[in-house]
Design goal:
By secondary structure, the chain is of the alpha+beta class. The chain folds into two domains: 5-173, 3-Layer(aba) Sandwich (Trna Endonuclease, Chain: A, domain 1); 185-337. The protein is 42% helix and 22% strand. The protein has helices at residues 5-8, 12-24, 35-49, 95-106, 126-134, 142-149, 157-173, 179-182, 186-199, 256-272, 308-337, and strands at residues 60-66, 69-75, 79-86, 113-120, 138-141, 204-209, 216-226, 229-237, 243-250, 277-278, 289-294. The strands form two sheets. It has a six-stranded antiparallel beta sheet with strand order 6-7-8-9-11-10. A five-stranded mixed beta sheet has the order 1-2-3-4-5, with helices on both faces. The radius of gyration is 25 Å and the shape is elongated.
């Protein structure tokens, strides 16, 4: 494979430059220079505006770093687009609210309709993306961008380098079907968690968690609890150190004695639901602590593919274990207090 500039220029500023350049190509002036690139740029602008394919684009201006806003664009003297562009980081420091207010103040006496867009070419939890939407931004992911890029062939080295770079990340993310990829490749690990978010109907979240041993990629959901603590499900992917499905506790007065007590009480519920749980090598009482690890949670077929349907059934059994245990403990305590 030939050298690709975007494998070297991985900073968000480089991506800002590409998207600004692409938006500028949507102006009618540039049809004569490269019609395919102009049409693709127009499709990309329509994606940003959530406009239909028959929306005519004639005049486009775009630039970078206006009042710290990553990318701005004006279309047909009708729309103003404010873009927050992200690779692998998330939004922070109330920047979305701040940029929105700057734009509203600037355009308050102008006729432009405002469009606020959050572009994310890396992977991000659907939970955090929902928070972005609540702030009045539409979200555009890598898959949506590639859908535009794959409509036609374009003869331009810069454009094709970026398209190839995005395609490689997408393929890497989707390689989670092979279990070995999940535990060896960060993007595949993220892809696995993104797939779980599609398959699990309740609220879930995932992200990087730092710790003294180098951190891990974590997925957590299904909170329940008893008087002494909250109990929830977590998947901890430490890559070189393996991946584990576990029960965690939080919102408690840390105590290893309590961990032993709960483990003894919850084990019969796990067994009834067809799963085997065991204590970690060592109990550590902290703000959050591992209560139990599910044995043989991840199975593969003869070709090394993760048996995803079986894993989902294991999650359902673990959810049921947590709920039945908490219901039993809380009900019995309520009765004894009456």
């Amino acid at each position: 494979m030939k050298p690709n500039i975007f494998k070297l220029a991985t900073k968000e500023l480089s991506q800002d430059g590409f998207f600004t350049w692409l938006i500028q190509w949507a102006d009618n002036t540039y049809i004569q220079h490269n019609q395919q690139l102009n049409e693709t740029a127009k499709d990309f602008v329509r994606l940003l505006l959530d406009e239909t394919s028959d929306y005519q684009i004639k005049k486009v201006e775009a630039g970078r770093q206006w009042n710290n806003i990553d990318i701005w664009a004006e279309v047909n003297d009708e729309y103003a687009i404010i873009i927050e562009d992200k690779t692998n980081t998330g939004e922070h420091s109330e920047q979305l609210e701040r940029y929105k207010q700057i734009a509203k103040n600037h355009y308050k006496n102008k006729k432009h309709k405002l469009a606020f867009v959050y572009i994310k070419t890396g992977n991000e939890s659907s939970s955090t993306l929902q928070e972005v939407k609540k702030k009045g931004y539409s979200t555009i992911d890598r898959k949506a961008i590639l859908n535009v890029f794959n409509k036609r062939e374009v003869s331009n080295d810069i454009y094709n380098d970026f398209k190839e770079y995005m395609t490689a990340i997408e393929e890497q993310t989707n390689s989670y079907t092979k279990f070995e990829n999940i535990i060896s490749d960060w993007k595949a690990g993220e892809g696995f968690f993104m797939k779980l978010q599609e398959l699990i109907s309740e609220s879930t979240d995932w992200g990087y968690v730092s710790n003294p041993t180098g951190g891990f990629l974590g997925f957590w959901y299904h909170w329940n609890g008893i008087e002494e603590c909250s109990i929830y499900i977590q998947i901890e992917n430490s890559f070189d150190y393996g991946i584990k499905l576990m029960l965690k506790v939080s919102d408690w007065e840390p105590s290893t004695d309590l961990l032993y007590e709960i483990l003894e009480e919850i084990e019969p519920f796990a067994k009834k639901n067809g799963i085997s749980i065991t204590k970690p090598d060592r109990y550590r009482a902290g703000a959050t602590s591992t209560l139990a690890i599910v044995e043989n949670a991840f199975t593969v077929d003869n070709e090394g593919n993760l048996e995803l349907e079986k894993f989902i059934r294991t999650l359902k059994a673990l959810e049921k274990t947590v709920d039945e245990y908490c219901d039993e403990i809380n009900t019995s305590r309520n009765k004894s207090s009456m």
